[in-house]
Amino acid sequence: MNRRIETVCVRGSQTRKPVENTGSISFPIYQTAAFAHPGIGQSTGYDYSRLQNPTREEAERVVADLEKGLDALAFATGMAAVSALMELLVPGDHLVATADLYGGTTRLFRHISMKNGITVSFTDTSQISNIRAALRADTKAIFLETPTNPMMNITDIAAVSALAKENSCLLIVDNTFLSPYFQTPLSLGADIVLHSGTKYLGGHNDTLAGFLITDKADILEKLRFIFKTTGAGLSPMDSWLLLRGIKTLALRMERHQENAMKVAAYLKSHPKVKEVYYIGLENHPNQEIINKQCKGYGGMVSFRVDNESTARQILERVKLIYFAESLGGTESLITYPMLQTHADVPEETRRALGVDETLLRMSVGIEHCEDIIDDLNQALG
């Protein structure tokens, strides 16, 4: 029986692994470093928690089910997942990446991956012609973020998948902003999906996590080897927190979206706001692609105000909304990308992307929408 996504969030697609017989509704936390062997040459299927742990496996099972993957790997952070992912490449390989990426990913590519002999070309992937022009004989992967952080640009995943296959490249998609509730890149042709599980999957601003999901057995085998060798697996307690958070993913995503639509409309009407970037707005330049590949619009809104003074005023005056760097949790957060998420991006590059003194990014929470708008209104003055 095919389960609908609301049910998959709570239970997964299949019956959970029978690792205990107590009937516990909440999956147990196996807070152990090692597992005893019944005898020589015998194993319970678990040896050492760096390799496998029942609580982490349950979190991986549910996330893989949500993303329609063969399996998932749960990491200590989103950046740990990206770091492991880059171990699929070797010195001399070339990567094409979205120019408008999360600053932490850009920092890793520029300062770690390039040091290790991997070359990276950043381009506006919302135009497939740019990707085609950036491809080289030594290109081994294309890395997309869609929607992008923080400018909310959209890339046609299916179209890039076809291009990647033509050129024998892996297609990797960061799906953090929309979550598998609103977008499933594997079903659109991606090879690997990345999540900062800290964000919408966890959903409560109380733990860090990262996930890689694939539907390819050969890729999974390579990633599992990297996973057990580099040792950045998610802890049992954090795995349990992720499981708990995912149970309400469907409910939260609907509320995030409902609130974000109203916040975006309010911001568009305010005289001090010059531009609003939200993929649910009808004037988004990629609306046709959005409606084709996304089942919803999520809760992320960026906006540009009239000057730097107004931007700083908002950050100083907000009361209900937290001035904080993360996203995807129950609480509304507002961020100054120039000084936070994109502080390590070279200034010339950052400005070319539109990340300047007037740009703010907001993760719209699940509070009452009028309270969020009231707080923005008083902060804008």
Notes on the structure:
The protein is an alpha/beta fold and 381 residues long. Helices cover 38% and strands 15% of the residues. The chain contains 14 helices and twelve strands. It has helices at 5-11, 54-66, 78-86, 103-113, 128-134, 157-166, 179-182, 217-230, 236-246, 249-269, 287-293, 308-317, 347-353, 369-380; strands at 71-75, 94-98, 119-123, 139-145, 170-174, 192-196, 210-214, 273-277, 300-305, 322-323, 333-335, 359-363. The chain folds into two domains: 5-246, 3-Layer(aba) Sandwich (Aspartate Aminotransferase, domain 2); 250-380, Aspartate Aminotransferase, domain 1. Helix 1 runs antiparallel to helix 2 (54-66) and helix 2 packs parallel to helix 9 (236-246). Helix 7 (179-182) links the parallel strand 5 (170-174) and strand 6. Strands 1-7-6-5-4-2-3 form a seven-stranded mixed beta sheet, sandwiched between helices. A five-stranded mixed beta sheet has the order 8-9-12-11-10.
CATH homology group of the largest domain: Type I PLP-dependent aspartate aminotransferase-like (Major domain)
Distance between the termini: 54 Å
Output the CATH class name of the largest domain.
Answer: Alpha Beta
Topology order in helix (H) and strand (E) letters: HHEHEHEHEHEHEEHHHEHEHEEHEH
- Please, what is the average pLDDT? 96
- From the spread of the alpha carbons, the general shape counts as globular
CATH architecture of the largest domain: 3-Layer(aba) Sandwich
Strand content: 15-25%
Query: Which strand order spans the largest sheet, edge to edge or round the barrel?
Result: 1-7-6-5-4-2-3
- Low-pLDDT ranges: none
- Under CATH, the topology of the largest domain can be stated as Aspartate Aminotransferase, domain 2
Tell me how many strands there are: 12
